[in-house]
Amino acid sequence: MDSFRKIKTLLKSKPTLEGAGVRLKRVFGHPELPLLDPFLLMDDFHSDNPDDYMAGFPMHPHRGIETITYVLQGKVQHRDSMGNSGTIESGDLQWMTAGSGIIHEEMPQETASLWGFQLWANIPSKNKMMAPRYQEIKASEIPTVSPKDQVQIKVICGNLNGIQGPIKDIVTDPEYLDISLQAHTRFKHPVKEGHTCFAYVMQGEGYFDAERSQAISPEHLVLFDTGNRIQVTTEESALRFLLISGKPIQEPIAWAGPIVMNTQEELDIAFQEYRSGTFIKA
Ligand code: CO
C-alpha cells in the first residue's frame, strides 16, 4: 500500500560561525538531536565573499562519524593524518568515514564563489572504531537518471531504476540524491519504511507533500514523517533539492565538537588520546 509521507517538521538554516571563522548556515545540529537520526548535523556554505570562508577548517580530529562534503561551486582542499590530500570542486563529493579516527583539514580556496554542503552521519556503536576510509568521487563519476524529461537525478548513494550510485557500503544504508525538477512537474519516489528522510531546498520552490500544503523555498529542510513514498511537485518555478535518507541508529549519543561516541567515557578517552598523540589507530 502506498502511503505518502507528510511533512513532520520544517527547519530553516541559521547563520553560524564555524572552524577558524567561517560564516556559514547551519541546517541542523546538536539542538535538533535525535530528530534526524542517523544524521547529526548539516551545514550549507554559500558565499561570493572569500572573507566568509577563507579561514577554513584547520587540522581537527574526527571519530565515530562520517562527514559527507558535496561541493557545487568553488574548491575545498583537504589533507589528513593518513597522508591523503586532494581538492573537491564543482560537483565532486567526498564521503569520509572517520571511524576510529582521522585528523584532517578542509580549506576552501579563493574562487568567485563557494557553495556546498557538509552532512554528518552517525555510526552505530559496533562500527564506531572501524578503520577510517575515504570515498571520493568526481562529478563525472556521478550518474544522472532521468525517469522523465522534467526530472534529473544525480545518484550519489543509493539505487535508482537499476542505477547504483558510486558511494557504497555505508552502514546506515543511506540514499543521497541531487534532484532537479522543471516547473509543472510531479515527482514520486519510494523511501524505505522506517528510514529517516529529509529534503533540503537548494534552488527554486516546490511542494513536498501530496496535499501541497505550502511552497518550500531555498535554505529550508523538510523532514518527512512515516510512510513509504514521497511526492514533490512544482508549479511556476523549477526546483533543485537534496533528498537524503538513512536508517536510524537509536543509540545514546555523547557528542563533543568533532567527535561523537555513545558514552562520556569514550569521549574522554578520545580527547585524552588526541592530547597524548595516540588518537590515530590506522
Ligand atoms: Co572535518
Please, could you describe this protein's structure?
The longest helix has 13 residues, at 264-276. The mean pLDDT is 96. The protein folds into two domains: 11-140 and 267-282, Jelly Rolls (Sandwich), CATH 2.60.120.10; 142-251, Jelly Rolls, CATH 2.60.120. With 282 residues, it is mostly beta strands. It is built from one helix and 26 strands. The relative contact order is 0.20. Strand 20 and strand 21 form a beta hairpin. It is globular, with a radius of gyration of 18 Å. The strands form seven sheets. Strands 1-22-19-24-17-14-13 form a seven-stranded antiparallel β-sheet, with no helix packed on it. The chain has a seven-stranded antiparallel β-sheet with strand order 2-3-4-11-6-9-12, with no helix packed on it. A four-stranded antiparallel β-sheet has the order 5-10-7-8, with no helix packed on it. The structure holds cobalt (II) ion.
Give the key terms.
single chain; 282 residues; mainly beta; Jelly Rolls; 2 domains; seven-stranded antiparallel β-sheet; 26 strands; binds cobalt (II) ion
